[in-house]
Design brief:
The chain is of the alpha+beta class. It folds into two domains: 16-231, Immunoglobulin-like, CATH 2.60.40; 337-460, Neutral Protease, domain 2, CATH 1.10.390. The protein is built from nine helices and 22 strands. Helix 3 crosses helix 4 (341-358) and helix 6 packs across helix 7 (415-429). Its EC number is 3.4.11.2. One of its GO terms (molecular function) is aminopeptidase activity. Its cofactor is Zn(2+).
């Protein structure tokens, strides 16, 4: 079975009824309000924050590998969307100072320490832009949120990778995919250690005992897609059809694993070229990948540079999955976490498509066998793909049934119309967010076919779709 990304720990789903979330007070003309602690996501109500829109994060951290301690400051460039007396950022670490536009602001930690509530000296006016600088120092491994203990580190290596949450363990964020922002990362580590992050290496500042590595991605991203890794890495880079690529492999891996992992990472530019034939131009300015020696148990589609465990040199389908996410999940992020199949179902379908094009087994045959192998009473069919719930957000059905739905749609409307739907979706949603309702509307509009029954069967009903032509199964 192809290795697919899984979050292997319990997600500790939180519901709106289980949390008392401070809601923004009803706005009155000229009366500032307290921005809400959350954007209203049904699965994780504390994710994101009301009243602000972030433009950029300027992260400047120092990481002590031996002590597993992170210290630094992040400047959050944001615009107030309401008149604000106070607002929140999602952040777990111990804070020592907050400044808004250079003036000290008061702050508190609320909701189990996940919410950093900031009260500026002067209320923020709707439509105005501000720099919020947060200074901190702590050991990220001390913290958990929503049942997740996400800090992955040894005494010689660290990698900040996880989903649906990662940012609050290493920088203060408006932590929801609906608020994308530019991420600029400076990380200081001892001499002889490398730092890898999103985007392009902008430079290194070498001091007496430390080196500061500066990485920046040109395109906005959802906060959980930002990452950094520090340790000893072998690096390879180049250009493929004009696209710069950079890959890295942990030197803490045994020699054979290092060589196999580098062979796999070097497939990245070729896989991108293959995906472009179906999906159009790669959406970002650079690409790459990183293999860690840490026992992560999953891969993740960090924007421009996915991260992987050591899985050998032949796991091409895993590379295909995470690079397909650069279109489905990164460039087009989910509108809310219930829309997760738009990430995972699509990336898994592109694995099927890659096999169809390179190994000869058609995606239609894969659908047929998958359908036949799952009994009607299997728990696989009990998941409502378009709204799986927080406890099943990464259930195998989100991947498998999601990819089945896409191939069934291809069977239903025909190959040419199917790829027209996919390319229209990519073009119209580029750089933004997408919801299940929007995808269903796009498919119906482009195909000119009433697909309501089809989508009800595949995405909204917790039972096995009937084997009919209308369901793409005849």
């Amino acid at each position: 079975m192809t290795l697919k990304r899984r979050v292997t720990r319990a997600l500790g789903a939180l519901t709106a009824s289980a949390l008392l979330i401070p809601a923004a007070a009803p706005a009155q003309a000229g009366v500032p309000v307290d921005g809400a602690s959350g954007v209203g996501d049904a699965y994780w109500p504390l994710d994101g924050n009301g009243g602000i829109d972030v433009t950029a994060y300027r992260i400047d951290n120092r990481y002590d590998l031996a002590k597993k301690r992170l210290a630094g400051s992040t400047t959050v460039e944001l615009t107030a969307t309401e008149d604000l007396h106070s607002f929140s950022l999602d952040f777990l670490l111990r804070v020592s100072r907050v400044q808004v536009d250079g003036a000290d602001a008061s702050y508190t930690k609320t909701d189990g320490g996940h919410e950093l509530r900031i009260t500026p000296a002067t209320p923020l006016v709707a439509g105005t832009s501000h720099d919020v600088e947060v200074t901190y120092a702590d050991k990220p491994s001390r913290y958990s949120y929503a049942g997740e203990s996400n800090w992955l580190a040894s005494s010689s290596e660290v990698v900040a990778m996880n989903e649906p949450h990662m940012a609050p363990w290493w920088f203060p964020a408006n932590d929801h995919p609906s608020d994308k922002a530019i991420v600029d990362v400076r990380t200081t580590v001892p001499h002889g250690r490398e730092v890898i992050s999103n985007g392009e290496l902008k430079g290194r500042d070498v001091g007496k005992r430390t080196t500061t590595w500066h990485w920046r991605a040109d395109e906005p991203m959802a906060p959980y897609l930002a990452f950094f890794a520090a340790g000893d890495f072998a690096v390879a880079k180049g250009k493929h059809d004009g696209l710069p690529w950079l890959v890295a492999v942990s030197q803490a891996l045994p020699g054979a694993d290092q060589r196999a992992s580098m062979r796999l990472m070097r497939k990245t530019p070729r896989v991108i070229s293959g995906l472009e034939k179906d999906l159009g131009a790669y959406p970002f300015s650079v690409v790459g990948g990183l293999t860690t020696s840490l026992d992560v148990g999953f891969a993740l589609e960090n924007q421009t540079r996915p991260t992987y465990p050591a899985v050998g040199g032949n796991a091409t389908s895993l590379i295909v999955h995470e690079l397909a996410h650069q279109w489905f999940g990164d460039d087009i992020a989910v509108q809310s976490w219930r829309d997760i199949w738009l990430n995972e179902g699509f990336a898994t379908f592109m694995e099927w498509r890659w096999t169809e094009q390179h190994d000869g087994r058609s995606a239609a045959a894969t659908l047929k066998d998958y359908y036949a192998s799952m009994d009607a009473d299997s728990s696989f069919w009990k998941v409502q793909v378009a709204d799986p719930g927080a406890d099943k957000v990464f259930d195998s059905a989100v991947y498998g049934r999601g990819s089945m739905a896409l191939q069934a749609l291809r069977n239903r409307v025909g190959d040419a119309t199917f790829w027209k739907i996919i390319r229209t979706w990519i073009r119209e949603q580029r750089g933004g967010n997408g919801s299940n309702e929007e995808f269903e509307a796009t498919a119906t509009r482009v195909s000119g076919v009433d697909l309501s029954g089809f989508f009800t069967a595949w995405l909204h009903t917790p039972s096995k779709p009937a084997r009919t032509a209308d369901n793409g199964l005849a």
